[in-house]
């Protein structure tokens, strides 16, 4: 298993934080607590709007809605690619088990 560093972020849900303020807060926390040194070593990013935690969207409503809308557009794009499948049963199964599952995963509570 590999650590996907570009996706590694620390979420600051406080609305008073700007992105720069959040970065500074993370840097100060890492300097103050040696146990957090690994965050600096992996190049942890910061987010003030939202992030995915084990696939679950956590963040402000606008960020979550934008994320889901982008994923929905990518599903629509992928569904069009399935038009080359001439077998109706296979086409239906691909839609149901793969494309539907992607949106259902995002819509769970």
Notes on the structure:
The chain is an alpha+beta fold and 109 residues long. It folds into two domains: 1-48, no CATH class; 60-109. The chain contains four helices and four strands; from the N terminus they run E-H-H-E-E-E-H-H. The protein has helices at 19-32, 37-41, 61-81, 88-107, and strands at residues 9-11, 45-47, 50-53, 56-59. The strands form two sheets. The chain has a two-stranded parallel ribbon with strand order 1-2. A hairpin with a 2-residue loop joins strand 3 and strand 4. Helix 3 packs antiparallel against helix 4 (88-107). The protein starts with 8 loop residues before the first strand and ends with a helix. The model has no long low-confidence stretch (mean pLDDT 81).
What about the largest sheet?
A: 2 strands, parallel
Low-confidence stretches: none
**Count of individual helical segments:** 4
Work out the count of structural domains: 2
Order of H and E elements:
EHHEEEHH
Secondary-structure topology with pairs:
Elements: E1 9-11, H1 19-32, H2 37-41, E2 45-47, E3 50-53, E4 56-59, H3 61-81, H4 88-107
Parallel strand pairs: 1-2
Antiparallel strand pairs: 3-4
Helix pairs in contact: 3-4
